[in-house]
Amino acid sequence: MKRLFVLILSMMTMMLFTACGETPDNSKSDSSKKVEQQTVPAKSDSKILVAYFSRAGENYQVGVIEKGNTRIVAEMIAETTGADMFEIKTVKPYPESYQECTELAKQELADDIRPEIVGKVEDMSKYDTIFLGYPIWWSDFPMAVYTFLESYDFSGKTIIPFCTSAGDYMTGKEVNIPKFAKGATIREGLGLQGKRCQEEPEAVRQDVKKWLGNLGF
């Protein structure tokens, strides 16, 4: 009797473990279907711009770099979509020192500064879709990105954000983009860990291509 009881208990435990093990797969399947239903194919004749802010020099987790993390992702997007590129660059460069740069960025955020940026997009009216790239600074955009967003009429245009930071995530601030880019609508963005862009660029490239594919590009 005791042996029978142990056998039944073992079988019940095995069934419970197997059921729990299937849960993550089922969740992924449902999530995947949801993404597919929300995917809207990009217009084949749409004109695309990749506008990005990126900073080289001394960076968090990767030391001194020659090419900024966000720029690396921006180039991957442009290569895949055939987009034009525009660098959001401040007239007064940020300090090369990571510590000094973070302190300046914090002060600019506190004062709601709009740094002057170099040049303008030659003809913004011809673009339907703008991929907007930036690093996350103090849980927000670098203030130069706000300068860019407030400099154009985005009526009828779609902005797709992407960012780099200490982790593979976005801050949620991207939902506020239409408040500054008047007339714009936004689509699902992509957050990537900055150091991965330096240490495993090919893996990042695959993440970017998958994301673009889900968006219809």
Number of strands: 8
Please trace the helix and strand order, writing H or E for each element: HEEEHEHEHEHEEHH
Considering the protein shown, what is the CATH homologous superfamily? Flavodoxin domain
Strand content: 15-25%
What is the terminal separation in angstroms?
64 Å
CATH topology: the name is Rossmann fold
- Helix fraction bin: 40-55%
What's the pLDDT, averaged over the residues?
Answer: 83
Instruction: Report the major sheet.
Output: 6 strands, parallel
Task: Give the low-pLDDT segments.
Answer: 1-44
Write the CATH architecture name. 3-Layer(aba) Sandwich
CATH class: Alpha Beta
Which outline best applies? globular
Number of helices: 7
Number of domains: 1
| Whole-angstrom Rg | 22 Å
The secondary-structure class comes to: alpha/beta
Give a nutshell description of this structure.
This protein is an alpha/beta fold. The protein has helices at residues 2-38, 69-81, 98-111, 143-149, 177-180, 194-199, 201-215, and strands at 48-52, 57-59, 63-65, 84-87, 129-135, 158-165, 185-186, 190-193.
How would you describe this protein?
The chain contains seven helices and eight strands. With 217 residues, the chain is an alpha/beta fold. Strands 1, 4, 5, 6, 7 and 8 form a six-stranded parallel sheet that branches. Strand 5 (129-135), helix 4 (143-149) and strand 6 form a beta-alpha-beta unit. Helix 2 (69-81) crosses helix 7. It is globular.
